[in-house]
Write a structure and sequence with these properties.
The protein is of the alpha/beta class. Helices cover about 40% and strands about 20% of the residues. It has a 7-stranded mixed beta sheet with strand order 9-8-10-11-12-16-17, sandwiched between helices. Strand 14 and strand 15 form a beta hairpin.
Length: about 375
């Protein structure tokens, strides 16, 4: 699939704060001058339950462009065209077709949601367009194409790690309620495989559609199955909180677990005390020892307020600077060269940590952590 060219040099950039190490001497370096203006596309949820993630991405992209203008591409005007993917495949396809066929973009940032990215990938891949997601985590993205990258770990790792937490806690009968989206179904499939492999009984599986707000029918069936644990598996924070709250009101006594939708403040605000004690899997918090990350995050918060996900701010900011460095190296918008530049990163140290990309465009070196909500009303969460 992906062809890796050995890289042999290293370079330091962005004022010594972020570092790139490369293995390449054979990537062709082009002699053309960069155009005065570059157009990049963005696809993410700018409406719907996951809007907060799209808004955070839009803000941090604008923020990163200021740094790129100062330190990387000072003579190039970069325009980003923002399109709403709605956190679903249908809207994302419409957005991609517009960016590709009308705006003639060669680089697309997105999607935020896995359903967006998986729907976009066949369109971008056919045209050799670089697609870079900072938040999509479906395992299927690993095989989405040669020009597809992400710096968010896969749901496979997410499901494996939360399954191990459930097993470690001694839970033996599990129920799950899942939203009918690519992201949530990917989590479900990998979670259940891991649990069943370890002899854990699945006593109930219930589903609901996006935009549903009443989950009492499914939760009543789950209560009747008397599980030790209930895994709440939505696409975003609002339904996560509603499901937990309604489970609490129905007096479901099962221990609660969830995916990274519980990192969304909407989940805690909606659920309140009903999620105290809930354990969920999430990207790690930004390292307190990473002064670069803490500085950028502090600057971002001053401008835009606290983000729904610090991790998303980190991964999208990193992706912008990585793409800028690739463009600067290639000296034109040549997606073959940009693709190979990213494949051949030996290490990149940015906001999210130190990582590289494997032959599928997936990050190597970034891991999930299990967190526990100890006081939802005061937003107190601890890493386990």
């Amino acid at each position: 699939m992906k062809k890796i060219t050995l890289l042999l040099f290293s370079l330091l950039f962005i004022g010594g704060c972020s570092t790139i190490s490369h293995k390449n001497k054979e990537i062709q370096q082009f002699s053309k001058s960069l155009p005065e203006k570059i157009t990049i596309g963005y696809i993410g949820p700018l409406t719907g339950d996951a809007t907060v993630y799209g808004e955070n991405e839009r803000d941090v992209i604008k923020f990163a462009l200021e740094e790129i203008k100062k330190t990387k591409l000072p003579n190039t005007d970069i325009e980003v065209i923002y399109e709403d993917g709605g956190c679903n495949g249908k809207d994302a396809v419409s957005a991609a077709q517009k960016l590709v066929n009308v705006d003639q973009t060669k680089i697309i940032l997105g999607g935020a949601c896995s359903g967006e990215t998986l729907a976009i990938a066949p369109i971008t891949e056919e045209k050799n367009i670089l697609l870079f997601s900072a938040f999509s985590s479906s395992p299927d993205i690993r095989f989405a194409g040669d020009y597809v990258f992400r710096n968010s770990p896969s749901d496979f790792e997410m499901a494996r790690d939360i399954a191990q937490a459930i097993i470690k806690d001694g839970r033996r009968k599990i129920a799950i309620i899942t939203e009918t989206t690519d992201f949530a179904k990917g989590i479900e499939n990998n979670l259940l495989n891991e649990l069943e492999t370890n002899g854990i009984q699945i006593v109930a599986k219930e589903y609901y559609n996006s935009n549903d707000n009443d989950f009492r029918t499914q939760l009543t069936k789950i209560k009747a199955a008397n599980p030790d644990a209930l895994f709440i598996n939505p696409q975003s924070g609002k339904p996560a909180g509603l499901i937990a709250k309604q489970a609490f009101e129905l007096e479901i006594k099962s221990s609660l677990y969830g995916g990274n939708s519980f990192s969304d403040p909407q989940a805690l605000n909606t659920a309140g005390v009903s999620v105290n004690g809930l354990k969920y899997i999430d990207a790690p918090g930004l390292s307190k020892d990473n002064i670069y990350a803490q500085t950028i995050l502090s600057q971002y918060i001053k401008l835009y307020g606290k983000p729904a996900s610090e991790w998303l701010i980190a991964t999208r900011y990193d992706s912008m600077l990585l793409i800028a460095d690739a463009i600067k190296y290639c000296n034109e918008i040549n997606t073959d060269c940009i693709r190979d530049y990213l494949y051949n990163l030996d290490t990149y140290t940015g906001m999210a940590g130190t990582y590289s990309f494997d032959k599928y465009g997936d990050p190597v070196g970034l891991k999930y952590v299990v967190k526990e909500i100890t006081d939802a009303e005061n937003g107190i969460i601890k890493e386990l």
